[in-house]
Amino acid sequence: MPLYEFLCNDCGRRSTYLTRSVSSPLEPVCRGCGSLRLHRAVSSFAIGKTTQQVHEQSGPVPGDASLDYYRDPRNIGRNVEESFGKWGMEIPEEVRESIDAAREGTPPAGWDI
Predict the structure, then answer these.
(1) 33: Cβ–Cβ under 8 A, 6 or more apart, which residues?
(2) For a pLDDT cut of 70, what percent of the chain falls above it?
(3) pLDDT computed for residue 25 by the predictor
(4) Which band of pLDDT confidence, cut at 50, 70 and 90, is reported for residue 111?
(5) Alpha carbon distance 5, 18 (integer Å)
(6) Rounded to an integer, what distance in angstroms lies between the CA atom of residue 60 and that of residue 83?
(7) HSE toward the beta carbon, residue 94, CA cutoff 13 A
(8) Do 6 and 39 meet the contact criterion of CB atoms below 8 Å apart?
(9) Which one of 27, 39, 95, 102 has the largest count of C-beta atoms within 10 Å of its C-beta?
(10) Half-sphere exposure (CA, 13 Å, Cβ side) for 89?
(11) Cα 97 to chain center, whole Å?
(12) How many C-beta neighbours within 10 Å does residue 67 have?
């Protein structure tokens, strides 16, 4: 069952539609304003990784640092920033604020650093 995402040309809202098959007819309507003027959007996706894979793909740890380097609040978000940059995407303001706060010594709620 494929998911299709559309952006409204009038209000900019993203609407997601689930279909039974690729060949199923689909007549998307904006769920925000009811407009029929929509265009297909590229959907985001996630890939599961182990902690070790994240560390390996984040590049070498600077100097003689141990894996505690990744638990240091000043380094939180390094991989997030690089990933957003790699895909040419802007970091959402809420994420940017969390990263900046962690670097200033206030880790996100629930983090045991």
Answers:
(1) 8, 10, 11, 13
(2) 76
(3) 84
(4) low
(5) 9
(6) 16
(7) 0
(8) yes
(9) 102
(10) 13
(11) 15
(12) 10
pLDDT tens-digit profile of 4-35? 899 999 999 999 888 888 888 888 999 899 99
Q: Which two tokens stand for residue 11?
A: 């209000």
Q: With helix as H, strand as E and coil as C, how does the chain read?
A: CCEEEEEECCCCCEEEEECCCCCCCCCCCCCCCCCCCEEECCCCCCCCCCHHHHHHHCCCCCCCCCHHHHHCHHHCCHHHHHHHHHCCCCCCHHHHHHHHHHHCCCCCCCCCC
Residue 22 confidence (pLDDT): 82
Residues in the chain: 113
Token look-up 């920033």 returns: 81
